[in-house]
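Re: folding output
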Amino acid sequence: GLRINGVAGGCSGLSYQFSLVSSAKDNEKPINEKGISIYINEESLNTMRGSKIDYIEALQGAGFKVTNPSATSTCGCGQSFS
């Protein structure tokens, strides 16, 4: 599955951290979406509630793009938020 955490760092205060894992930790809420298991801990879930996560392939590279309606600001590169 895909583990997503909002961690301290980045130019706007928090940044997204993604990792591929085989199972959830005890403090994570599993979410199943389109056949994919997503694991988010409760603290990160509160800051990411309502977010849309896409995997994008572009000329600049590939990676996850998060559209977070709870973010009050983001950095120019889109990798961090507050």
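--- second protein (sequence, then structure) ---
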Amino acid sequence: MRRGAPLLLLASAAFIAATMASVGGQQAQPVAGGVYSAAQAQAGQAAYARQCAGCHSADFRGSGDAPAVAGPDFIAKWGPRAVNELFTYLVQTMPPTNPGSLGEAGTLEVTAYLLQINGAPAGQQPLTATVSTPMNAVLTGQPRAQAPAS
């Protein structure tokens, strides 16, 4: 029985190494069902048009000191961070002339809209301020950018 132990140990080590290499090379998969509701994103689209598009532009590319809120730069900055970090940042700093003026519900709606335009699918449950899912896990990489409602 002792003869087979080194072979078993070697086979186990090879299996573990192959599994780790396979898992390590995978990208985060989108969260099934989404973390916000379509109704939230729709309300967020209207709020974005009223409160955000003036600085971040209707095409989400940003202008002046206002960064892009969609696309590769946004995803590079926010992708590794949790959804609730984006919400917290927005509620504490936006709009810059009156931070927090959208309130919690309005900021959740705008956050849902930003998720939507960056490719995150909608789900059945509304977004809450406590969703700690990494953004990379909800973004599909297929942007759904659309012009804000007028």
